[in-house]
Amino acid sequence: MYEYRTLTPEQRAELVRQRLAKGYPPHRPPHLIRDHTFYLLTATCYEHKYYMVDISRRQQLLDRLFEAFVAKGMEILAWVVLPNHYHLLVQVTNFNDLSKLFHSVHGATSRQWNLEDGATGGRTVWYSYSDRAIRSERHYYTTLNYIHNNPVKHLWVKSAYDYAQSSIHWYLQYYGREWLHHLWTEYPVRDYGRAWDDI
To answer: What number does CATH give the domain 31-198?
Structure first.
């Protein structure tokens, strides 16, 4: 999205032409694989602005997400909510429900936060969401580690255990620190996001 703004009008037109030729939407993330069970779902605040610095907002969002996913018969297996984006590892029952689900959650939080901040005129809070189908057991557990390490990656905390809006605390309670350490050793993150299909 941000690179697009630096392009000339000719470069923008060519980029859109290439995306449309592949069957992608012109400006939004494509949702290419719709038949898997597990997905990494990511949503970002518009222009990566920090609309969720306050812990209560991150918790509000998390509560709404759980409510929405449970209502659709889907299970959130891992999560992290940072001040400007979030990641979820989800067992998806119907991929086609995701768009409405995110629209509902993002719409409700946008309205609430805009009212709280006195941001009239329809301030855009959310950009969109992207999905990544989980390909294998290794991909699954590496994704789990990626989610839990995300607050460290973005320098919000020094230890993943110090971040509140993360499923690491649930895993710590039910599986223990030794299990989490084994997972981290067995499925290291290392350049996560590159060569997705090789994981």
So the answer is: 3.30.70.1290
User: How are strands ordered across the β-sheet holding 126-133?
Assistant: 75-81, 85-91, 38-45, 126-133
Q: How far apart are CA 168 and CA 79, in angstroms?
A: 8
Cα–Cα distance for residue pair 192/46, rounded to 1 Å: 23
The answer for residues whose C-beta is within 8 angstroms of residue 192's C-beta and 6 or more apart is 142, 143, 146
Which tens digit of pLDDT belongs to each residue from 110-163? Answer: 999 999 999 877 799 998 888 888 988 999 999 999 999 999 999 999 999 999
Give the CB-side neighbour count of residue 197, counting CA atoms within 13 A. Answer: 1
Rg of the chain's alpha carbons, rounded to an integer? 18
Structure confidence by residue, pLDDT tens digits, 3-42: 646 656 666 556 546 544 545 444 455 444 545 689 999 9
**Residue from 32, 41, 33, 34 nearest 69 by CA:** 41
Residue ranges of domains in the chain: 1-28, 31-198
